[in-house]
Amino acid sequence: MIQSDTNYRTSGLVFLNFFLLVTMGSNDELMKLWLSADAVCFDVDSTLCKEEAIDELAKFCGVGEEIRKCTIEAMNGNISFQDALRTRLNIIKPSKSILKQFIETHPPKLTDGVKDLILILQKKNIDIYLISGGFRTIIETVAKEVNIPKDHIFANRLQFDQDGNYVSFDKAELTAKSGGKGQVIQLLKDKHNYSNLIMIGDGATDMEASPPADAFIGFGGNVVRKKVKEEAKWFVMSFAELTNVFKNGSNNMEV
Question: Which residues are the signal sequence here (predicted)?
């Protein structure tokens, strides 16, 4: 028996509503925001990429264990971000030459499925930004891998003396401060009038950026932060979960 166009369309919408209910439960409003997003902001370390770049840089410089402990404290929200950044950089003291060697020998390890998700977002003309407490020099190589322009990167800038030795970091950068990611998002919303801006990340500093982000999606595909898993209204373990929402949602809205 051939189903009529009307019945087929109705069945498709029923499936979509069921899909929303099963996937999000009482938080289906968040999924609706995701389906209508006009901008998406990604954290980079342990979200867009599998690793924490500062931890890998520390290992490269022979101070990995000291830095790892400090990173965990910062990601769990136990110390201010700027204090953690200052402490870590004073231990690593990355020179220009060391950074260059690190970048040349450590290409970005993108998280599984993130390229597919970004491609879908780009096809839908959804603006994408990278907001990170990491270092711009390193993140530019990541952005290149996923075809995100440099002016869509918000990250920390390191400062060097005339011989290329590490001196400090630019404290004027919003991403160098506690609450800085939220300030970047507010800046973007004010400038571009985004109505549905979504923040995706693994850490407490990402979650704190919503609001002003219209929604936050916690990501645990590389590491699960206890605070984020417990407090995020939407928590996913893979980017495929987000990609499938677009695929299933779009397909069934079109029937």
Answer: 1-25
